[in-house]
Amino acid sequence: MTTPEFEPVPRTTPTRSRERVGYDRAAVHAVLDEATVCHVGFVVDGEPVVLPQLHVRVGDRLYLHGSTGARALRMAGGPGLPVCVTVTLVDGLVLARSAFHHSINYRSVVAHGVASVVEDETEKSAVLAALVDAVIPGRSSQVRGPSARELAATTVLRLPLGDVSLKARSGPPHDDPDDLALPYWAGVLPVTTTTGRPVPAPDVTVPSPWPQPPATEQTAS
Amino acid sequence: MTTPEFEPVPRTTPTRSRERVGYDRAAVHAVLDEATVCHVGFVVDGEPVVLPQLHVRVGDRLYLHGSTGARALRMAGGPGLPVCVTVTLVDGLVLARSAFHHSINYRSVVAHGVASVVEDETEKSAVLAALVDAVIPGRSSQVRGPSARELAATTVLRLPLGDVSLKARSGPPHDDPDDLALPYWAGVLPVTTTTGRPVPAPDVTVPSPWPQPPATEQTAS
Q1: Do B190 and A195 touch (CB under 8 A)?
Q2: Residue A133 class from Cβ within 10 Å (0-12 exposed, 13-18 middle, 19+ buried)?
Q3: Span B180-217, pLDDT tens digits
Q4: Do the Cβ atoms of B56 and B127 come closer than 8 Å?
Q5: Of A82, A156, A84, A157, whose CA–CA distance to A116 is shortest?
Q6: What are the chain A neighbours of B15 within 8 Å (beta carbons)?
């Protein structure tokens, strides 16, 4: 049965700033779904490696797609690859009256687990479609689907979401009472990620599927 | 002597997509300077951990600031903490005529090394000022500086930049020749990160240091 919250475990329980941490499943899903890239950490010869990857979430599975390196993929294809996948969205720059209380507003998900190579072709096809649809909803039915050769050339990793936590900060700066009267501005600069006007490929012949671009940039959904 | 390029070493030489990798020092610096957060990977009990951190670059040193966890900080204070720090900027969503050639335009820096706790108070003060100035140039002289107690409560890690590489993709999709005539739009959706209108703290009494906000959101510099 799916519970509203992920179960906290020692490695998802922070030693500091506990008030910023949560396990709400829907909130975790929302952060994973909003982000374009995640950062995947794994261990090679005892040393950490962190690489950016594209991802898509399907239920409580996170799928990873990108060049992970031959050695990591060999491990993932055998016993599985222990990974830590982290996704961070920056929501604002927090300016306080003191240097010390400067911060950022953000939402960050950290997921620990063992990633495995997706071998099943049906699952792999569905994931590749979901990856394309994560960019533009419905896009996967408006492109040529993968050939058998392309499917074979693509490696997708599956990470079951279990040991997961969400850390977030929002709202105004928290200045010390003694600093409130200082003659310095304080507040938040909101940070937004937007997509701009589509740039057609040089050889494209069909019209853009988007309406006439607006005069200003539009906010990404 | 500083060379125009970082020296490639085995762990900064990829096994795939070599054409996307470079070592240009100025380009690496630019990516690190543009990004607000980095993702820091380290190893705890043989398992990978990846956490978002604020960072600032000073010359060929990358300084990290954030809650790294008590155990990692103990290691960093002693022999040093082996880390992999990765910074990724997403520049565009690349839509091809085939699902297989969908991609993103991005710039990503991966830096390997050993991070150490900054013990010197002069260096630590300079880094904290640089962290604030990285948000808004000149801001550190327009706030209350850190007290001795605040300095003591702050941990900053220093990572010398040496084993560093930059991976990037730009430009239009690369469709297969056989797909060029397909009736599907192809191109790039540019992705931009912008800062919006400043939101004053509820109790702020001085005017915003920014000019009258424009009618539309402004692009971050």
Answers
A1: yes
A2: middle
A3: 999 999 999 999 999 999 999 998 988 887 765 544 44
A4: yes
A5: A157
A6: 69-70
pLDDT of A24-61, one tens digit each? 999 999 999 999 999 999 999 999 999 999 999 999 99
Type of residue found at B163: D
Which backbone phi and psi does A73 adopt, to 5 degrees? -70, -35
- Domains for chain A: give ranges and CATH numbers: 10-219 (2.30.110.10)
Rg, C-alpha atoms of chain B: 21
Residues in B touching A85 (Cβ below 8 Å): 50
- This complex has an ipTM of 0.92
This prediction's pTM: 0.92
CB contact set of B217 (below 8 Å; sequence gap of 6+):
A192, A194, A216, A217, B194, B195, B196, B197
Q: Which of B128, B157, B158, B131 is nearest to B145 (CA)?
A: B128
Q: Which amino acid is at A55?
A: H
